[in-house]
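Duplicate of #3305? Posting structure anyway:
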């Protein structure tokens, strides 16, 4: 959050009760009311006054202190603040020159956050169904870093469990090594689908699959070799997709990483007297929490997702020293994470409160959920290829002389996919549509990327230098002020995401900056302006380019200088 905003919050904190978190309570009003707003409704009981009177009294008191910065006004229970044009422009531009791409970022908090995201299952191709966890998680990782946190990104690969016993059985029964070497993960998917089709006819196959996993879990050499082969080839394919999306992880520690930590985890439960027998399985009773029992170990001795997630949570807290554990996983897993949190609490660990399930809606396909078991899957590689080719054809038609067409088409295509996901509020389901996913006009990623490229073009043509001095005009136009205001709002939205875990706030803010910039560009001559006005407007263009690039980076997008 930029200094001029923090300054206003400091004055508000001096006048309001200490237990009120001003940075969480503020709102962004319509521009005709001001630039920032603080609702006074919660103060009525504390001050024993009507909220409208409180807003009016506070505005009168604060106006005496803040006349150099702007003005407060009371409006229907809201305390509104409007920056003076000079203070807004000077404050934003001076901080830009100092912070550059880190404009709006917070100082280091010393807090360590582990964010668990993407986490595809090995032996299956990376599909469009993995996009939401991947793009949301990556954006949150970057935005939390911008909020001064030490963030560790973990790809908790789905590389353990009964499904691998089923796949090992299918490979041994129907597999062909030469076809596998040629087709890789795609062939493993075919075998996985075949297993489930055959198991519908002959349910005994499920038992064979469970037996193969039990052998794997107990160290069977041949099963281990096959599993490692499946894992290695899957990871190679995943990394190709991550590279195209510009995504990195600090750890690829999947479920198998915790294999040697499971007995200690189960012993902790036993020592606390939490384990109970139920039909031969071991459970933790959660009746007092209003939830079904947490299954820890099946009657055949094999472990489950919950056992491994519990071991992972303990490891991340005790070894990696995490202050906050975030899990970016679909909404359908809500019960699972509620159970995880409840079991951690029963173990007596007060850090259960710092476990957060960052849930999201799913992609739907004509009203149906995607299913790898039935072979209903859209490969991420195909989506990226289609996006790139669509953009490449547009470039060849509209800007055939553009240098590095392939690279730019790749960056813009991937940006369209990422932005097309993140502009949606994460908790909502999204109906998959090729047309919508690859749309490049309107409120899209390429629209924002093109505005950045236009800014860079203006700066190149003008011979702009970052070290040039500028003066603030006595009066700035409504278009200049609108753009500066949206950039100020962007800086507070970075902070807002750290409290809500909703990256769409950044995507929405970038769209508003882009629209405001286009209005500014159409109504305010830049290169043809004279003297100080030209220098000032070039600084605004430079500011816009910097913020758009920084904001897109927070979302995991690239920002080409030309398009």
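Output from current build:
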């Amino acid at each position: 959050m930029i200094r001029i905003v923090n300054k206003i919050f400091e004055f508000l904190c001096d006048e309001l009760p200490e237990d009120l978190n001003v940075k969480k309570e503020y709102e962004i009003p319509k521009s005709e009311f001001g630039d920032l707003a603080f609702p006074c409704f919660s103060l009525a009981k504390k001050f024993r006054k009507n909220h409208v009177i409180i807003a009016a009294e506070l505005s009168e008191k604060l106006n005496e202190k803040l006349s150099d910065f702007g003005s407060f006004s009371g409006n229907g229970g809201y305390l509104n603040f409007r920056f003076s044009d000079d203070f807004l422009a000077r404050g934003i531009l001076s901080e830009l020159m100092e912070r550059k791409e880190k404009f709006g970022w917070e100082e280091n908090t010393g807090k360590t956050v582990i964010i668990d995201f993407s986490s595809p299952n090995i032996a299956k191709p990376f599909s469009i169904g993995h996009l939401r966890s991947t793009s949301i998680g990556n954006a949150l990782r970057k935005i939390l870093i911008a909020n001064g946190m030490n963030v560790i990104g973990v790809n908790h690969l789905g590389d353990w469990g009964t499904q691998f016993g089923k796949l090992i059985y299918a490979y041994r029964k129907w597999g062909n090594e030469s076809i596998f070497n040629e087709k890789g993960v795609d062939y493993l998917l075919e075998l996985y689908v075949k297993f489930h089709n055959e198991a519908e006819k002959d349910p005994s196959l499920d038992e064979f699959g469970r037996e193969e996993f039990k052998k794997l879990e107990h160290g069977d050499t041949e099963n281990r070799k096959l599993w490692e082969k499946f894992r290695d080839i899957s990871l190679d394919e995943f990394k190709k997709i991550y590279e195209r999306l510009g995504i990195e992880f600090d750890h690829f520690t999947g479920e198998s990483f915790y294999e040697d930590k499971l007995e200690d985890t189960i012993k902790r439960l036993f020592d606390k007297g939490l384990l109970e027998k139920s039909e031969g399985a071991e459970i933790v009773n959660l009746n007092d929490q209003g939830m079904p029992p947490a299954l820890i170990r099946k009657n055949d001795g094999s472990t489950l997702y919950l056992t491994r997630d519990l071991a992972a949570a303990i490891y991340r807290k005790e070894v990696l020293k995490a202050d906050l554990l975030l899990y970016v996983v679909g909404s359908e897993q809500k019960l699972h994470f509620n159970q995880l949190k409840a079991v951690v609490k029963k173990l007596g660990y007060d850090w259960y409160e710092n476990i957060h399930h960052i849930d999201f809606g799913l992609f739907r396909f004509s009203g149906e959920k995607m299913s790898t078991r039935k072979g209903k899957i859209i490969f991420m590689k195909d989506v990226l290829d289609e996006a790139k080719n669509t953009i490449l054809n547009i470039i060849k038609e509209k800007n055939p002389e553009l240098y590095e067409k392939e690279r730019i088409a790749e960056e813009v295509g991937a940006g369209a996919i990422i932005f097309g996901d993140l502009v949606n509020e994460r908790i909502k389901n999204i109906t998959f549509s090729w047309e919508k996913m690859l749309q490049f006009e309107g409120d899209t990623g390429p629209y924002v990327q093109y505005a950045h490229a236009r800014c860079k073009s203006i700066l190149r043509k003008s011979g702009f230098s970052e070290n040039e001095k500028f003066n603030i005009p006595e009066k700035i136009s409504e278009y200049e002020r609108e753009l500066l205001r949206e950039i100020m709002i962007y800086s507070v939205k970075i902070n807002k995401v750290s409290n809500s875990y909703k990256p769409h706030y950044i995507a929405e803010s970038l769209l508003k900056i882009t629209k405001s910039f286009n209005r500014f560009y159409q109504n305010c001559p830049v290169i043809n302006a004279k003297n100080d006005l030209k220098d000032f407007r070039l600084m605004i263009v430079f500011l816009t380019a910097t913020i758009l690039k920084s904001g897109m980076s927070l979302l995991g997008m690239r920002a080409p200088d030309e398009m």
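Confirmed duplicate; merging threads. The longest strand covers residues 70-75. The first helix runs from residue 3 to 15.
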